[in-house]
Design a protein that fits this description.
Structural class: alpha+beta
Number of strands: 7
Shape: elongated
CATH topology of the largest domain: Calcium-transporting ATPase, cytoplasmic transduction domain A
Strand content: 15-25%
Largest sheet: 7 strands, antiparallel
Order of helices and strands: HHHHHHEEEEHEEEHH
Distance between the termini: 68 Å
CATH class of the largest domain: Mainly Beta
CATH architecture of the largest domain: Distorted Sandwich
Radius of gyration: 28 Å
CATH superfamily of the largest domain: Calcium-transporting ATPase, cytoplasmic transduction domain A
């Protein structure tokens, strides 16, 4: 997304639209705030920038996710312990069930189930964000109000915000009247934030950018209009989705040691005639 200075000159990436006058933002995005984009221009921008959706990882087949739970040096040691216990039980011809082998195998299976469940939740996090932010948005196009799927919003669209609306994209406020927005999904702030189109003089944290509204938040009170400055993965919620995708599970100390030198020991046990 292009960035601007207060004089309206494009100066490249990295400048926060909250520090730019609203009319300058609209000018740089080549949109008339009183009429909005034309249908043809909106279609062109949608084709160029892609849909206003969060990008998720390609789904991993279930069988691969299951197999991955057993690909660990510690698991190899436990499986080896199961095999040794079973072999000892067979050689000794002991009566009853091989209790040691069953207990260790149960631990391995339980670990796989827990690991699979945790990974499934992590991989579904982006999809959950996408579902949370999917909605219809009221926009101004060619001077007329219309509702469009939020996935079809483009940079330069003029959002018309009313109480109860979900905000479909990141946008710079043009006007606001008693406008308050619930931003708990982004900032964790339980109270709705009062919004104003006044240009900020100094950089501010996300929760203090009162002249901006963000995808995934909701209008708690009032009305307003805003010009879309970010869509899809270029939004603040998109940044959260990218962090979720980039999150790598850190190995436990035991796994780290076992991977480095196979020093993770299995609890000692010795087969007995009764097992």
């Amino acid at each position: 997304m292009e960035a601007w200075n207060r004089a309206g000159v494009a100066i490249g990436e990295g400048v926060d639209p909250s520090q730019v006058d609203a009319d300058v933002v609209a000018m740089q995005l080549d949109v008339d705030p009183a009429a909005g984009l034309s249908a043809q221009e909106a279609a062109r921008r949608l084709e160029a920038d892609g849909p206003n959706e969060l990008r998720g990882k390609k789904p991993i087949p279930t069988w691969r996710r299951v197999v991955a739970q057993f690909q660990d040096p510690l698991i190899y040691l436990l499986l080896a312990a199961v095999a040794i216990s079973l072999a000892s039980w067979v050689v000794q011809g002991a009566e009853g069930a091989p209790v040691d082998a069953i207990v260790i195998a149960a631990i391995v299976v339980l670990n796989a189930i827990l690991g699979y469940t945790q990974e499934a939740k992590a991989e579904d996090a982006v999809a959950a964000l996408g579902t949370m932010t999917a909605a219809l948005s009221m926009v101004l196009r060619e001077g007329e109000l219309m509702r469009v799927p939020s996935a079809e919003l483009v940079r330069g669209d003029v959002l018309v915000l009313n109480e109860g609306d979900a905000v479909g994209a990141d946008a710079r406020l043009l006007t606001a009247s008693a406008l308050r927005v619930q931003e708990a999904s982004l900032t964790g702030e339980s109270e709705a934030v009062t919004k104003s189109p006044t240009t900020l003089i100094h950089p501010a944290s996300l929760g203090d950018r009162v002249n901006m509204v963000y995808k995934g938040t909701a209008v708690a009170q009032g009305v307003g209009r805003a010009v879309v400055t970010g869509v899809g993965m270029s939004t603040e919620v998109g940044a959260i989705a990218e962090m979720l995708e980039a999150t790598v599970e850190e190995p436990t100390p035991c796994r780290t040691r076992s991977a480095a030198s196979a020093r993770c020991s299995v609890p000692s046990w010795s087969p007995s005639p009764s097992s």
